[in-house]
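User: Okay, second chain of the day. Same drill as before: sequence in, C-alpha cells out.
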Amino acid sequence: MRAIRYLNTSSRYNETMETKAKLENALKEAMRAGDQVKKRTVRMALAAIKQVEIDRQVSLDEAAVLAILQKEIKIRREALEEARQANRPDLVAEAEAEISIVIAFLPQAFSADELKALVETAIAETGADSPADMGKVMKLLGPRIQGRAPGDQVSQLVRQLLQK
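Assistant: Same drill. C-alpha cells below.
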C-alpha cells in the first residue's frame, strides 16, 4: 500500500530539474512530512552520489547520477531477493518501498518493444553481425539508454539478437 504512494511522486517535480536537485528537494519534503522510509532512501542515494563525487573529485553530470541511481536499484533488488529467500516479509516490503522511491527519480523506462527497436537500430548502424561485435553495439547504446534501461537487460537483448 505504501509503495504505491511513491510511484507518482515524480510528477510533483519540475521535469527539467536535475536529478540531484530533485533528490535534495525530496529529502526536504520527506523530512517535513516525517516520512522515514523516503528520507532514509533519498539520503542513501545522495550519499552514494556524494561518495562518487569525492572519490573522483568532480561534480557528476546527469548521466552519472542516473547510473548511480540504477546501481542503487540493483542493490535493493538483490536485497529483495535475499529477503524473499530468508522468508522476511518485513524486509521485502521495505526493499520494495525503497525501489519504488528511487525509480520515481529515473526517467520513464523503455518498454520492451522500444528497447528492442533501439537495439536493432544500433546493430544496423554498427553493422554488427556476430556476438563478437557486441562491444561496438553496447558502446553506441550506452548514451541512448542511460537511466532508462538496466545495462544487464540491454546486454542480454543485444547478445540474443546478435546470435540469431
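Residues 112-162 form a domain with the Arc Repressor Mutant, subunit A fold (CATH 1.10.10.410).

User: Thanks, on to the next one.
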